[in-house]
Amino acid sequence: MTFPIVVLISGSGSNLQALIDQSLQGNLNVEICAVISNKADAFGLQRAQKAGIPTHTLDHKSFDSREAFDEQLKLIIDQYQPRLVVLAGFMRILTETFAQHYEGRMLNIHPSLLPKYKGLNTHQRAIDAGEKEHGVSVHFVSAELDAGAVILQASCPIEKTETADTLASKIHSYEHIIYPLAVKWFSEERLAYKQGTAVLDGKILAESGVMYHPDLI
């Protein structure tokens, strides 16, 4: 029996594609019940349609408030009764009510080694700060921006000649590995959220979660 999830996007949907691919290859036993975007021109919608996945567009500009948008988004999501909501480049700050409704069953991926560099422009900020390494984190979503319990991280060195674009490219390659892995853990009930912490195989994870390496399964 497949594990139902809903994916939220705003852009190209490369992490959505990674989930689709892993599912088709039999590495991920999930059913992507729907893909929802707040932008009608998001390329990820085409990826979903090509894979035969139902899509919805919900333009946030059509709503008078963030709360009204989130309430309508919740209604669309809940009609599919997903066991997990996956934010894959969904560029919206969520209300506390929305975050609480999906507490413990909503994941996000953020391009930094959290808790460092929450928010935007993380690659350039890491370079400007003289960091030796940078990375990406999968975490549970909480009401505070990019502050939920971290599950899994991957890191790479920052070279002397690094630019934000080259660093982003390296980070993307890791995103497409660790996000499906975290979703897999959740779908297999190995991963859980308990009292504000991430728990894997019955063990509470450290603040930085698990660091990815090729042998990790």
Instruction: State the name of the first-level CATH class of the largest domain.
Output: Alpha Beta
The order of strands across the largest sheet is 3-2-1-4-5-6-7-11
Annotated CATH topology of the largest domain: Rossmann fold
- The radius of gyration computed from the alpha-carbon positions, rounded to a whole number of angstroms, is 17 Å
Counting helices, strands and paired strands, the structural category is: alpha/beta
Question: What is the count of distinct domains?
Answer: 2
CATH superfamily of the largest domain: Formyl transferase, N-terminal domain
Please trace the helix and strand order, writing H or E for each element: EHEHEHEHEHEEHEEEE
User: From the 3D coordinates, which CATH architecture of the largest domain would you assign?
Assistant: 3-Layer(aba) Sandwich
Helix content: 25-40%
Question: Major beta sheet, specifics?
Answer: 8 strands, mixed
Label the overall shape.
Answer: globular
Number of strands: 11
Strand content: 25-35%
If you average the pLDDT, what whole number results?
A: 96
Number of helices: 6
First-to-last CA distance: 21 Å
In words, what does this structure look like?
This protein has 217 residues and is of the alpha/beta class. The protein is 32% helix and 25% strand. The chain is built from six helices and eleven strands.
